[in-house]
Amino acid sequence: MTLESMEPGDWNGDDDVLAALGRDGLTYLVWGADWCGDCREQLPAFAAALDAAGVPADRIEQFPVDDDKQGEGVDAYGIEFIPTVVVERDGEEIARFVEEEPEGIAAYLSDRIAAADADEAPANADD
């Protein structure tokens, strides 16, 4: 099942955001509902950013929830608010957006993806 609110809308972001979102090995898990105002407002721009970053559809999983915010994966991932977007690398969560932040979903997650990449970078042997 898919979310109509994940149809790409308008997005005006920068290349750093696109580079982070488009990194190999990332999977995006998106919980939302088409009845949800926050989802209708935020998800189209996020979908447009994923599209602009070249993220293939098979790396974007959509999980619609009902009026009680119940649905597939809700309990397993501890979903309480929507939209929620979890970013995984090799099955491990590296970033999470929950409901609302001052910047959009794409920018918020790109900062956390970059931080996760920095944490995984090997230490310089000369240090």
Automatic annotation (TrEMBL):
Residues 1-118 form the Thioredoxin domain. Coiled coil: none annotated. It comes from the Archaea. Pfam families: Thioredoxin (PF00085). InterPro entries: Thioredoxin-like_sf (IPR036249), Thioredoxin_domain (IPR013766). Transmembrane segments: none annotated. This is Thioredoxin. It comes from Haloplanus rubicundus.
